[in-house]
Amino acid sequence: MKALITAGGRATRMRPITHTINKHLIPMANRPMIENAILKIAETGITDIAININEGDTEIPKVLGDGSNWNVQLTYIEQMGGPKGLAHIIHNARDWIKSESLLFFLGDNIILGSIIPFVEEFKTKNLDCLLALSRVSDPQRFGVPEIINGVITRVIEKPQEPPSPFAVTGIYAYSPKILEAVAHIQPSARGEFEISDAHTWLIEHGAQVGYQEITGWWKDTGLPQDLIEGNALMLDQMHEGNGQTATRQEKNISIQGIVSIGKDVTFGQDVLIRGPVVIGSNCHLENCYIGPYTSIGTGSRIVSAEIEHSILFNAVEIQQAGRIVDSIIGEKARISAASLTLPRCGHRLVVGDNSSVEL
Fold first, then answer.
1. How far apart are CA 22 and CA 292, in angstroms?
2. What is the pTM of this model?
3. In the chain, how long is the greatest CA-to-CA distance?
4. CB–CB of 125/210 below 8 Å?
5. What is the pLDDT of residues 297-330, one digit of tens each?
6. Beta strand 266-267 pairing with 248-250
7. Does domain 2-235 have CATH number 3.40.50.720?
8. 331-342 residue pLDDT tens
9. Which architecture characterizes domain 240-340 according to CATH?
10. DSSP tag of 252
11. ∠ CA 137-34-119 to the nearest 5 degrees?
């Protein structure tokens, strides 16, 4: 069995962050988001993994390399002609898939539990397609299955009137029949080859299509606030083996809960860190409070500020900025009090497209 991870697209809803970084490389607990997908797949024993990337993309291959860090082999497949839907990604990778079964994984989905039972059910029941379903409050955003007497009869992409409260999540298992399905469907009204149409094609042509409902361990990171929540979910997975634990007092530093601190981090006076928190290497913290569910990237400097429930990329500098919560702060960003510069009143901003600022 092979695995295919999606890592293309433009992530326009994530701008301005995604103007300068591929969405799938955005850090979650200080690791690229897509690493979560690689780790989950590797746990199943699948080692042959392809990653779908945008045409001409060199950033993701440079960051992930050949996969040896996770004991897998990574192949990169460019999505020629630009994004045309999930079904097109599979069709585009047909020469690599050949006649193998396929685990299809959306690289911007956060899966916290093991997917081993999912893969085992697909194999044990000898299915042509197994879909992971999750109950959601807004199924209009997803592919939604119509289920009659416990059987999926069709799947509708982003329906205005969902036939069920389930979303098809970002993990799928297929027999080689999926290649026939994606080759026969037509573009939807929005001009994309919908994976939901491929699922319906399989059902209509007698394929064995099953589903498994999952609860509490799936997060689609389609919006900026989803990134912050996904980061919190990843930090919740920290345990004593990968963080400093319990409460301790050291000079003027107080650490409470589970906290992971990188190499060469320096501390000034009066620092309180309350986990779960991840702090990258070569950071400096002084007169500050770092609250739960915060990730701080390498080379950052926090002085006289409070940060909580936020993601800070590498080399962020924050000085006398008061309290910052529920925020995503991009690489090399600088935030400081207006009183540090002249004139000492008003707010001085450089705000890019699609930014969100609360003052």
1. 26
2. 0.81
3. 72
4. yes
5. 999 999 999 999 998 989 988 888 788 888 888 8
6. unpaired
7. no
8. 888 887 766 665
9. 3 Solenoid (2.160)
10. T
11. 70
